[in-house]
From TrEMBL:
<dbReference type="InterPro" id="IPR055170">
    <property type="entry name" value="GFO_IDH_MocA-like_dom"/>
</dbReference>
<dbReference type="InterPro" id="IPR000683">
    <property type="entry name" value="Gfo/Idh/MocA-like_OxRdtase_N"/>
</dbReference>
<dbReference type="Pfam" id="PF01408">
    <property type="entry name" value="GFO_IDH_MocA"/>
</dbReference>
<feature type="domain" description="Gfo/Idh/MocA-like oxidoreductase N-terminal">
    <location>
        <begin position="4"/>
        <end position="133"/>
    </location>
</feature>
<dbReference type="Pfam" id="PF22725">
    <property type="entry name" value="GFO_IDH_MocA_C3"/>
</dbReference>
<dbReference type="GO" id="GO:0000166">
    <property type="term" value="F:nucleotide binding"/>
</dbReference>
<protein>
    <submittedName>
        <fullName>Oxidoreductase</fullName>
    </submittedName>
</protein>
<dbReference type="InterPro" id="IPR051317">
    <property type="entry name" value="Gfo/Idh/MocA_oxidoreduct"/>
</dbReference>
<dbReference type="InterPro" id="IPR036291">
    <property type="entry name" value="NAD(P)-bd_dom_sf"/>
</dbReference>
<feature type="domain" description="GFO/IDH/MocA-like oxidoreductase">
    <location>
        <begin position="141"/>
        <end position="271"/>
    </location>
</feature>
């Protein structure tokens, strides 16, 4: 049975709204039933109706949506929060407390305290609070995780993660309001580029190697001097299983596009995946030739086979990766509604605990950078 789904933020012209709508619609598991899509109530109502939401469920703001949905017999089961960062916490908390499942965009919150509170709130309400590290939905990212877990590259020694683009490199464009807010502490919080992009790379590294960041040291730079917050960061890490981590994130790397890549080096092999060529995974077994694994080849791993949507050789990309997060959520919610144990294969979506770990890492990196790169505990207080 299809689940009713709603969305807050992601209005017309937003960056990430369309990817959510495509992803949620891809498998026929969700009906787009309600929305408060825009900071401007009239624009939000109008856009929601043009997308097929009925007039009485096209809301002007999230508070009206909460009240409108709360007591409906056909109320939404899952709400996606795709608004600017500082609003994630109050919206996610209110919907969790009212018994809705939530998929919140990253960064989950601005402060560690709020992130810990969301973890506790979700647990107390027995609801899912997922976080959209959607790039872990790529079939070959899930395959990397499976290869590492089954020992294909031996014990992991080193992970190198990058998320470096060049879209904020133009000094003449630094005052453009769409760029400037990201570097304004009042609107962005304590970190710009690491919080915006670096945490995707960090979460993916943790996801693939199955280890959490224990401690880190960070060097933050504002390559454009007009910026208060960093536009480039280099972060060294130590993970819970002893793996060494290197992470570079930048918004001034001219010529780089999305720039998300992950390399994992173990005792008996290495792996390399780049989001801009997501259908190929480079696998180098020690002492042998480089192998290029194609998404959609049969019998890669149960995780990759489940996440692969079109046959080998056809391009598959980012909306399909996000759709894998939505399908995991639909399968898990449907099982819970039926009183059944959810399929463990659907349990790969990022959780509130992952969102919390990222926020703790952001604050640790800011602290470290301010202390000249001192090693700093990266674990959230509640997990120490
Ligand atoms: P955007 O500025 O392009 O769009 C934000 C949308 O939210 C606009 O339609 C705006 O009218 C609406 N909005 C703002 N306040 C609202 C409110 N109180 N109630 C309802 N709607 C409201 O922002 P963008 O780039 O789409 O980012 C949104 C969130 O998604 C951010 O937290 C960002 O970090 C995250 N993001 C995640 C990505 C991912 O790969 N997972 C990629 C891009 C953004």
């Amino acid at each position: 049975m299809r689940l009713n789904w709603g969305m807050i933020g992601g209005g017309e012209g937003s960056q990430i709204g369309p990817a959510h709508r495509i992803a949620a619609g891809m498998d026929g598991l969700f009906t787009f039933a309600a929305g408060a899509l825009d900071a401007d109530p009239a624009r939000g109502k109008d856009f929601a109706q043009r997308l097929g939401v009925s007039a009485d469920r096209a809301y002007g703001n999230w508070q009206d949506m909460l009240e409108g949905e709360r007591n409906r017999p056909d109320r939404i089961e899952l709400v996606t929060v795709a608004t600017p960062n500082a609003t994630h916490y109050p919206i996610a908390k209110a919907f969790l407390q009212a018994g809705f499942h939530v998929l919140v965009e990253k960064p989950m919150t601005v402060t560690v305290e709020d992130a810990e509170d969301l973890v506790r709130t979700a647990k107390a309400a027995n609801r899912i609070c997922a976080v959209n590290y959607g790039y872990t939905g790529y079939a070959l990212v899930r395959h990397m995780k499976a290869m590492v877990a089954r020992g294909d590259i031996g014990k992991v020694r080193l992970v190198v993660a990058e998320f470096a683009h060049g879209h904020h490199a133009d000094a003449a464009d630094a005052d453009n309001p769409r760029v400037r807010w990201r570097y304004d502490p009042a609107q962005a919080g304590v970190s710009a580029q690491f919080a915006d992009c670096g945490i995707h790379a960090l979460h993916m590294a943790s996801f693939v190697i199955g280890q959490e960041a224990d401690k880190l040291q960070a060097d933050f730079a504002s390559c454009l001097p007009v910026r208060t917050l960093e536009d480039d960061a280099m972060v060294n890490l130590r993970f819970s299983g002893g793996t060494v981590g290197r992470l570079w994130t930048s918004s001034v790397a001219i010529g780089r596009q999305h720039g998300l890549t992950l390399q994992v080096f173990g005792e008996t092999g290495g792996l390399r995946w780049a989001q801009e060529q997501p259908n190929q995974l480079h696998y180098m077994p020690l002492g042998k030739r480089l192998q290029i694994i194609e998404r959609g080849e049969g019998n890669l791993s149960p995780e990759a086979d489940r996440a692969s949507r079109v046959t080998v050789g056809h391009a598959e990309g980012m909306p399909e990766a996000f759709a894998n997060i939505y399908r995991d959520l639909a399968d898990t919610i449907t099982a819970q509604n039926a009183g059944k144990t959810p399929d463990p294969a659907a349990n790969l979506f990022p959780k509130a605990e992952d969102g919390l770990r990222s926020i703790a890492a952001i604050h640790a990196a800011v602290t470290s950078a301010a202390a000249g790169g001192a090693w700093t505990d990266a674990r959230p207080p509640m997990f120490r």
